[in-house]
């Protein structure tokens, strides 16, 4: 059935509302709701007067009379009772309610403006049975996910305020390497109060490599280093090795942080530009011991393809993977024009994939006048990719050749020459240049697609 517009006068209470025993009429039903809810009904009325009815919760009604229009509230009887008292305070006459409750309701009724409430959006059910499923789902708890899943304390705190303690906890949950069971245990039973005490202590915070500015947690420590002490703090709180009573005094918190061993302490000598922890690239948390640089493959005279023998990239994106396979199978002698175009496309799409996977926008900031966000050039995106890889320990020298290729006008990787390949019928790719272009870019491809 469709949504219908309702007025307060159209609504009647359900005399078989499960919150109350059966009522003989509307006055008795209202009395039973008042007795059952007491000051909760006042708090609901306050919310309605100040904020209106919730736009995400409709009344579910059942028509009982066409003339005059009357609808029983199958779902929403508390709201209907509050609305009845706000719209017609005289209805309180004869009701048995505490004086304080009556005074509060009368005060709210005096400032209630029903024009801001009406029309009320209702959902008309065809029968009680039709509405029963949804009503039970609404009031029967989570029901294995079918009903409303209540927020855990951490989720509620995250919604109310993105405080520094939540920023620290989210960082560890996302990048700390916890398994699914550990993560769920932290989300369910973690003492946010204990973590707050650590984060709110300036000395302890500095020892962890953090500062707070404008309620924003910031650091100048690389992500992999920052994660060491933060992961220990979260693990210790989750395991109840420390708690709010342990951290009664500032000196207790500082002593705890100072006790961390080398494996749980950030290397303060490693510095990067200060930035919010919520903006740290994912690549910073996947630091690996740099592998010895592979010797750059030299094109074999008898090898007919642009991709050298022995080169194996783990391309996880479907379309980019298809382009890579085509490059592996197209012969330089037979398909140099196709290879020239695919080679440039493979480089740019690989760089785009890496940047997006690490949360980097492929656009420049919006133009203040037009509002448009222009795309970044390949050399700009390549520089950002190289910077991210250097931050996780890859030597910059690995990428010198491909960086030069993109800015070298005689290279197939250069945009001008690439455009000429596509649009100039007299510009023909040279097979040795194509092979050299791949060799220059292969160290980068190996890091993007390890």
Report what the structure shows.
- The protein contains 18 helices and 8 strands.
- It has 450 residues and is of the alpha/beta class.
- The protein has 3 domains: 143 residues, no CATH class; 128 residues, no CATH class; 131 residues, no CATH class.
- It has a 5-stranded mixed beta sheet. A 3-stranded antiparallel beta sheet has the order 6-7-8.
- The radius of gyration is 33 Å and the shape is elongated.
- It starts with a strand and ends with a helix.
- The model has no long low-confidence stretch (mean pLDDT 84).
User: What is the helix content?
Assistant: 40-55%
Instruction: Give the distance, in angstroms, between the N- and C-terminal Cα atoms.
Output: 55 Å
Task: Output the structural class.
Answer: alpha/beta
Pick out the low-confidence regions. Answer: none
How many individual helices? 18
Average pLDDT rating = 84
Number of strands: 8
* Shape category: elongated
Pattern of helices and strands: EEHHEEHHEHHHHHHEEHHEHHHHHH
Write down the domain tally. 3
The largest sheet is: 5 strands, mixed
Strand order of the largest sheet: 1-5-3-4-2
Percent of residues in beta strands? 5-15%
Radius of gyration computed on alpha carbons:
33 Å
């Amino acid at each position: 059935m469709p949504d219908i517009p309702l007025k307060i006068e159209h609504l009647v209470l359900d005399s078989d509302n499960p919150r109350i025993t059966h009522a003989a009429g509307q006055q008795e039903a209202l009395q039973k709701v008042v007795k059952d809810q007491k000051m909760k009904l006042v708090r609901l009325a306050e919310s309605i007067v100040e904020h209106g009815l919730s736009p995400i919760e409709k009344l579910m009604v059942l028509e009982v009379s066409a003339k005059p229009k009357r609808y029983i509230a199958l779902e929403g009887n508390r709201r209907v009772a509050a609305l009845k008292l706000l719209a017609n305070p005289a209805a309180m006459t004869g009701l048995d309610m505490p004086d304080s409750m009556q005074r509060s309701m009368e005060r709210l009724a005096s400032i209630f403006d029903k024009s801001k409430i009406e029309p009320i959006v209702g959902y008309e059910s065809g029968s009680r049975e039709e509405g029963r499923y949804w009503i039970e789902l609404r009031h029967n708890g989570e029901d294995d996910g079918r009903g409303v899943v209540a927020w855990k304390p951490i989720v509620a705190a995250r919604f109310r305020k993105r405080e520094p303690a939540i920023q620290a906890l989210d960082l560890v949950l996302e990048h700390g390497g916890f398994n699914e069971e550990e993560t769920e245990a932290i989300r369910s039973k973690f003492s946010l109060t204990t973590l707050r005490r650590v984060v709110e202590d300036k000395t302890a915070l500095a020892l962890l490599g953090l500062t707070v500015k404008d309620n924003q947690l910031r650091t100048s420590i690389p992500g992999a280093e920052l994660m060491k002490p933060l992961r220990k703090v979260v693990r210790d709180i989750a395991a109840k090795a420390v708690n709010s009573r342990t951290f009664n005094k500032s000196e207790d918190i500082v002593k705890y942080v100072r006790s961390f061993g080398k494996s749980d302490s950030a290397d303060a000598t490693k510095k990067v530009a200060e930035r919010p922890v919520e903006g740290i690239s994912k690549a910073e948390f996947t630091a690996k011991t740099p592998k010895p640089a592979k010797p750059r493959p030299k094109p074999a005279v008898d090898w007919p393809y642009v991709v050298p023998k022995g080169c194996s990239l783990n391309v996880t994106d479907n379309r980019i993977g298809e382009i890579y396979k085509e490059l592996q199978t197209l012969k330089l002698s037979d398909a140099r024009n196709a290879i020239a175009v695919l080679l440039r496309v493979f480089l740019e799409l690989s760089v785009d994939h890496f940047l997006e996977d690490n949360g980097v926008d492929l656009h420049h900031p919006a133009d203040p006048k037009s509002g448009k966000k222009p795309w970044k050039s390949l050399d700009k995106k390549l520089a950002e990719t190289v910077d991210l890889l250097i931050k996780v320990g890859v030597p910059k020298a690995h990428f010198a050749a491909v960086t030069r290729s993109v800015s070298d006008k005689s290279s197939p990787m250069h945009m001008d020459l690439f455009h000429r390949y596509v649009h100039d019928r007299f510009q023909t790719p040279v097979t040795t240049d194509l092979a050299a272009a791949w060799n220059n870019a292969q160290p980068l491809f190996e890091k993007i697609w390890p």
